[in-house]
Every structure is written in C-alpha cells, then in structure tokens.
Amino acid sequence: MFGFLLSLFALQFALEIGTQTSESHPSITWELNGARQSGQIVIDSNWRWLHDSGTTNCYDGNTWSSDLCPDPEKCSQNCYLEGADYSGTYGISASGSQLTLGFVTKGSYSTNIGSRVYLLKDENTYQMFKLKNKEFTFTVDVSNLPCGLNGALYFVAMPSDGGKAKYPLAKPGAKYGMGYCDAQCPHDMKFINGEANVLDWKPQSNDENAGTGRYGTCCTEMDIWEANSQATAYTVHACSKNARCEGTECGDDSASQRYNGICDKDGCDFNSWRWGNKTFFGPGLTVDSSKPVTVVTQFIGDPLTEIRRIWVQGGKVIQNSFTNVSGITSVDSITNTFCDESKVATGDTNDFKAKGGMSGFSKALDTEVVLVLSLWDDHTANMLWLDSTYPSNSTAIGATRGPCATSSGDPKNVESASANASVKFSDIKFGAFDSTY
After folding, report:
1. I need a labelling partner for 200 at 20 to 30 A (CA). Which of 17, 87, 135, 359 fits?
2. CA dist 12 to 7, 8, 15, 170, 237, Å?
3. For residue 149, which phi and psi values (nearest 5 degrees)?
4. How many angstroms from the chain centroid is the CA of residue 263?
5. Residue 436 lies in a domain
6. Looking at the 3D structure of the chain, how many domains does it have?
7. pLDDT band of 6, cuts 50, 70, 90
8. CA distance 220 to 131
9. Range of 200's domain?
10. Cα–chain-centroid distance for residue 414?
C-alpha cells in the first residue's frame, strides 16, 4: 500500500507536457533487411524549452529558477517540457532518407547551438537495434564541418520509451526525447529518470547554456562515427552497468576518479590518422571527405569478437586502413588484441579491458540500443582528442589524431566563424553482412 501511494505521488507531480508548440516529428525513411521503413526524428529533452504553466522559464541560460525549481519535486510539479520547432529553432530538417543538422540557428527567441536527435519507431518509442552479427550502414556528408566540430552517429543503451514506464516522473517519454545516457556519464542532463537534476547544480563557466548536477547517467555506448572533414574515429565504450550514478560510480575527472567509475570513458578507438595512416581520410584523400561517403560497420560474432569498417565512395568499395604504429600488429579492425596493444603502445590506461573488453561489451549488447545523431562543439577539450594532438603538448604515440592545429576548436571561435556548418546523414540501412552496400 505504501508503494502504491508513492507511485500516485510520483504521477501527481510528474513533469508535464507543454502546449504552446505542437510536437511534430520530422519523418525519415531507412531500410531494415532490405525493406523500407518509415521513421521519425525527435530532439533530446535537454534542448527543449522548460517553463511553468505560463511562459516563465524553469531553466534559463545555464541556471535553474530558484522559485520554480528549488528541489527536484517542486521542479516536476511546476514545470512543462515544450514541443519543438525543428527547423526554425534547431536547424534540423529531413527529406526522404536524409537528415540535416545545422550548427548555429538564430530563432525568434534564442540562438541554438548544435543538437542531438534520436530515431523513433513511432511517436512514443525509439527504434531499437540488436547489433551483434549485423551490419549498419549510412551515408554522410561532412564537407561543411571544419576543425572543432563533431557530426556524430552512435548507439546508446537507453530505454525504448525514454524511461516512461519505469520512472513515472518521466511522463513525456520518448516522444519528447527523454532518457539519454552514455559512457561519459553526463552530469549536464536536466532530467535523469524523469527527476530534475537540480541538486548541486553548477553553471558551466565557459558554456552559457550548460551546467552540471549531482547525478550522471551512464550506459554502454558504441560510437559508429565521430567526425569532421579532417578526422574520424569509431570507438567502443563498455560499462559494467547502465544506471544513474552519483559520486565514485560516475568516474568524474574533477574528482580524479575517471577509472573508478562504471564506464570506460576512453574506449578503444580506431582513427586512421592516429594509428599511422595520414593519407586515408580527409579532403581529396583515399576516402574523400569533401564528398559524401557510405560507411559500413560490421559487428562480427556472438559473443562479439570484432568490429569491422568498410567504405563505399564513387561506386568503389574501399577497405579500411591498416595500423602502422610500433607495438601494434598491422590490423584494420577493432579486436581485443588491437585494443590491448594500442593501450600498451600509447601508455594509456586499459579501462576497456578492466570493464570486460570485447566480452564485456558483447554482453552489454544483449540489450537493444538506440540510434543517436548529433552535431556539437567541445567546451571541455576543444575536440582536440578527435582532430588534433591531445594532450596538446604530448609527443607520445597516438597523441596526434588529426591535422588540426592545437589552437583550433575553441567553441567561441568555432561558433562565430563556422555558424553555417552542418552535417548530412542519409540512406540508413541495417541487415545481414554485405547486404546493405
């Protein structure tokens, strides 16, 4: 009886849905086992207007309203999550199989920076994928993405309904982009499990739109694609469990606990430039980033033993580059051996192995995952870990990841000079090996 009363209390004060902007999801087509699918795109709840029953902001800039959100319960009681104007506010458009994400969009009431969206099966449910022994393919155009930007496509183990069934406070659910988590255990999520993350909230000093709260939200992540026109990587991140975190479990850098948390934040990555081939990916190179390219990723085995990359451009199939670094066997895919050798060669902590390696990641993939597409700049490390040298003064093996200058990537400069940047994703396909390209 006591639990029943608690449930009624939670439902009574669940985050409400606003009515000032109707939620109309952009439509997109994709293919599953050769059959055309009709999907929808939804923007993450973190980007949405959060207000009271009128037009007063519950969250303004990078701070919570002390009146409307003095604690998580009052925040859920007082606040409404609004629908989205996808093109006018967020610079997001879809046509046929193509999705375009704009970088800086000047709307009627605010300027929006970047976005993160998910593929929906229907208006209330994320499309779920089981990756093992399957192939995922898409076409991408990063020609309009300079240094410091990341047009990303990846999978995370977030709930199919955005947490709505398990957490009554998460009433808006997947329809309004709730439930995000990833292997970085982000503390910047305004709502975790439907509960406002207002406790210990600290505005971020160099980002006028973001802050961090007491809790993080952790889950397994497979970065299929992180890229701009100068560099690209795909990365495996294993987590020992998927959960809201607090304290040591979050693995926070600020507490010097990066490798004590439940997720492998570094991951095991394959970046052609980093591993010795500086002529493979980029404008005018073997894979020409000035033109659209089709990217194929194969998840081999169950249990998973290998993740393989194939490229298609100009009607030609291009095999992935091979590693050419001292201490790493010449390979062109991600395996346990590659991950172990690359960590030894670079001197990096092998947290991937500590979290179970490929076996642990394979077990995590027994859970279905959600497709995420995003465009962002980096207020923490200026994206140097993707396209430049990181740490910026390092001469160690693997420190250089791309040709961008170590002075590049400052969000203030990127947002000013590259406001019109964009990324285009299209022709998403999922099926058996060698069936999608």
Report:
1. 17
2. 9, 6, 9, 12, 37
3. -115, 155
4. 15
5. no
6. 1
7. very low
8. 13
9. 2-431
10. 20
Task: Taking residues 384-402, report their average pLDDT.
Answer: 98
SS3 string, the chain, reads CHHHHHHHHHHHCCCEECCCCCCCCCEEEEEECCEEEEEEEEECHHHCCEECCCCCECEECCEECCCCCCCHHHHHHHCEECCCCHHHHHCEEEECCEEEEECEEECCCCEEECEEEEEEEECCEECEECCCCEEEEEEEECCCCCCCEEEEEEEECCCCCCCCCCCCCCCCHHHHCCCCCECCCCCCCCEECCEECCCCCEECCCCCCCEECCCEEECCEEEEEEECCCCEEEEEECECCCEEECHHHHCCHHHCCHHHCCECCCCEEECCCCCCCCCCEECCCCEECCCCEEEEEEEECCCCCEEEEEEEECCEEEECCCCCCCCCCCCCEECHHHHHHHHHHHCCCCHHHHCCHHHHHHHHCCCCEEEEEEEEECCCCCCHHHHCECCCCCCCCCCECCCCCCCCCCHHHHHHHCCCCEEEEEEEEEECCCCCC
As given in the structure block, the two tokens for residue 384 are 């140097």
**CATH number, position 212:** 2.70.100.10
> How far is 322 from 210, CA to CA, in rounded Å?
39
- Residue 13: pLDDT band (50, 70, 90) is confident
- Entry pTM: 0.96
Beta strands 422-431 and 27-32 are parallel
16 is catalytic: no
Residues 402-420: tens digit of each pLDDT: 999 999 999 999 999 999 9
Verify whether residue 226 is a known catalytic residue. Answer: yes
Both tokens of 389, joined, read: 């040298």
Q: Is residue 296 part of a domain?
A: yes
How distant, in Å, are the alpha carbons of 18, 93, 106 from that of 153? Answer: 29, 16, 24
Asked if residue 437 is part of any domain, the answer here is no
Q: Which pLDDT does position 12 carry in this prediction?
A: 56
**Domain assignment present for 384:** yes
Q: Kindly name the residue from 221, 306, 341, 368 that is annotated as catalytic.
A: 221
| Position 132, amino acid | K
Mean pLDDT, all residues of the chain: 96
Check 23, 135, 226, 415 and give the catalytic one.
Answer: 226
